[in-house]
Each structure stands twice: as C-alpha cells, then as structure tokens.
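Lab channel / #folding
Pinned by the channel admin:
"Please post every new chain as: sequence first, then the structure tokens as a reply. Keep commentary short and put observations after the output so the thread stays searchable."

First post following the new format, from NK:
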Amino acid sequence: MTRRPQPLRIVLGGVESVALSVEEYEQLLASRRQVGGQSARLRALGEKIRRTDQLLGDLRRLVEEPGPKTANAEALRKAVTELLDRRRNPSV
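Reply from TO:
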C-alpha cells in the first residue's frame, strides 16, 4: 500500500496553511469539479427515483382499487395510458 503524500504545512501571518504545487492545485480543482458533477447527477437521479416511486404508487392504486374507470381490462389500459401520458407531459 502506498503512503498518502503529506502536504507541506507552512505558517503565514500566524495562520497555519498548506502549500501546494501548481500541479497539485490543478488536481485539487479537477477533483472538486468531478465531485460537483457527481453531486448534480446524484440529485437528478434522486429526483427521478422520487418521480418513479410516485408513478408506481399511482399505478398500484389503479390496479388494486378498481373503480368505474378501471372496472374492465380496456378501461384499466386506458387509465394506465392516461396516467403515463400525464407523467411524460405534465402540460396535457
């Protein structure tokens, strides 16, 4: 196992700081950008999971609680299609 490099610690104006080479600083910036991008992707995926969970709940209610609009197979198919269309295009 390789030993993690220790940063060069310096004191400037009584404040302990860390000195980085230009290359190390560039790597740090690149890592921060990668983490930021991953964070944005995780937020987007989390929102997609929440929407999918809501859709599955709505579909389950259509199937488990048949009413006049879902009493037969054709009516259920139409209700599911309408629900999916509303989820894809909320303006409809």
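NK: The longest helix spans residues 22-64.
TO: also worth noting, The mean pLDDT is 85.
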